[in-house]
Amino acid sequence: MLAYFLQGFLLGFPASAQPGPMQAFLFSQTLKNGWRRSLPLALAPLISDIPIVLLVVFLLSNLPAWAVAALQIAGGLFLIYLAWGAFQSGNAPVAQAVEQDAPEHGLVKASLVNLLNPNPYIFWGTIGGIILLEAWRDSISHAVGFLLGMYLTLCGGFALFILFFGLVGKADKGDGRLNRWLAYVSAVLLCGFGIFQLVRGLAALM
User: Using CA atoms, how far apart are residues 91 and 98, in angstroms rounded to an integer?
Assistant: First the structure.
């Protein structure tokens, strides 16, 4: 079990640290709502990955190319929508309180970002799914160990990401200029990832 736990542990950390749509979304939500309200969003993969793992492992990485392309297009549009919200947050006057998302609403959005991101499907269809099936054939405890190691570092890495940018935003006690520019940066990142997903999805369908 320890060997599979370590495999999951080592695979989860790069996934949490690699720049992507999920990290950009967590960045924008932390600036908007603060780290305390955003910290539960680190658990989003525990919700969104359940159908992904079940689907991809069942299909044994035979997900059709058009399905991946459709996910990329849907995810791209959703990220552009989130980018607009981040831009509005940065454009709001400092004296005007920006409406905060309820924790459960933010968790739903984070889960959607991950669900519409093709990267988890690719990972579970190529690497994670193969290791999980191998572990399952050996023992249920081995499969559980792999998943525990994976999501310990994945969710833990997201939590550290939120805490870091939450402390950066908290340090802005002046006129709010730092938070405003950070919000603009998050909007650009979200929009950039959204356009990238759209282009890749449309190119795959052509």
Answer: 10
Please state, for a pLDDT cut of 70, what percent of the chain lies above it. Answer: 83
Domain that holds residue 20: 2-205
Amino acid sitting at position 155: C
Q: Which residues contact 109 (CB under 8 A, 6 or more apart)?
A: 25, 29, 82, 101
When divided into structural domains, the chain yields a total of 1
Q: For the residues of 104-161, what is the DSSP string, one character each? A: HHHHHHHHHHHHT-HHHHHHIIIIIHHHHHHHHHH-HHHHHHHHHHHHHHHHHHHHHH
Give the predicted TM-score (pTM) of the model.
Answer: 0.71
pLDDT at 24: 83
**C-alpha torsion sign, points 90, 93, 95, 100:** negative
Encode pLDDT of 167-192 as tens digits. Answer: 876 655 555 666 677 778 778 887 88
Tokens of 33: 């709502």
